[in-house]
Amino acid sequence: MDKPKVVLGVSGGIAAYKACELLRRLTESGHDVRVVPTASALNFVGEATWAALSGHPAGTEVWESVHEVPHVRIGQGADLVVVAPATADLLAKAAHGLADDLLTNTLLTARCPVVFVPAMHTEMWEHPATQENVATLRRRGAVVVEPAVGRLTGKDTGKGRLPDPEEIYEVCRRVLARGTAGPDLAGRHVVISAGGTREPLDPVRFLGNRSSGKQGYALARTAAARGARVTLVAANTALPDPAGVDVVRVGTAVQLREAVLKAATDADAVVMAAAVADFRPAEYATGKIKKQDGQEPAPVVLVRNPDILAEISAERPRAGQVVVGFAAETDDVLANGRAKLRRKGCDLLVVNEVGEAKTFGSEENEAVILASDGAETAVPHGPKEALADLVWDQVVPRLA
């Protein structure tokens, strides 16, 4: 079979050097990549580097190899165009249809999915002109990945950093897998909780669970690749931040509740995939609890944590909001799941069987998606990414 053809556009920002790693990941995973840099980009990474890593020439002008009509053919033959980094200038040209070099011509002729990965200083990203250009590109069906927060050029820190190349690659892979389906979550804000809460007993001990957060992160990555603005409330995870996702880190169930309720005020969908502790210690010991010779430990008195899923389902901070819950069961899985769906009042409930060697920490999952209208969808054993896409497939038609 022919290799998927990817055009990697590189515009003139300091983050251009990171695109070399993205190019390596794309080529090593079996993609045929043609790099199209801007003239400014070559001030950061030379043409010889792009040509050596991709196996193709990396010209910037429409006047090179004119007989091959590159300004038309490159875009026409692509299965995906990704621009990383995309500067404020490049976004402005793309939004207004300007075509003064090979990359901007390629963007005009491409009829495949297009992904922009912005990188710039915070003030440039937040400027109304840039935000309007981003909104224009998203309305036209492009996926514009939210920049990361972190160290920028010099001593500056803020939003505008290029996400990690591995996470950009994951976005590209997911967009390619969807083909021409398009970003059906474009213009939507989704909130996802992930991981497992921890309830402290003393400064060194806590009550917790085995959740790794991988299913929630898969939901976040697939939503971003489908065009959504994503807020991920992550409880005690050790996973890299997904590209284009705003990550809010929390520890306890109370902290998770506060973060989810705050983010949900303007959310179109809330997916509660985190394993939230049902109980917490009634008292917190400010010093480490010591063993007493010849004495049994004092009982740990527990109190209930807030039921965040039931609260969100009942209050719906935004009209028409779709709420999805997850139920981890060890026995009578479907019966307990159906009862939980009625009790919680959510629109969808993803029910799966868990145990010491099941689901938690695994790269794969299997589940049944229960709907409030009585529909049931069995999801066979497979990657957590596949389950995540099926969840979004059911959320999209329910969005107001």
From TrEMBL:
Please name the GO terms that the record assigns under molecular function: phosphopantothenate--cysteine ligase activity; phosphopantothenoylcysteine decarboxylase activity
Domain (Flavoprotein) ranges: 5-173
Q: Which domain of life is it from?
A: Bacteria
- Region listing for Phosphopantothenate--cysteine ligase, in residue ranges: 190-400
Q: Where does CTP bind?
A: D278, K288, P306, D307, I308, L309, F326, K340, K344
Q: Does the keyword Ligase apply?
A: yes
DNA/pantothenate metabolism flavoprotein C-terminal domain mapped to chain residues: 185-396
- Which reactions does this protein catalyse? N-[(R)-4-phosphopantothenoyl]-L-cysteine + H(+) = (R)-4'-phosphopantetheine + CO2; (R)-4'-phosphopantothenate + L-cysteine + CTP = N-[(R)-4-phosphopantothenoyl]-L-cysteine + CMP + diphosphate + H(+)
As cofactor, the record names: FMN; Mg(2+)
Q: Which protein is depicted?
A: Coenzyme A biosynthesis bifunctional protein CoaBC
Per the UniProt record, the source organism is: Streptomyces antimicrobicus
Gene name of this polypeptide:
coaBC
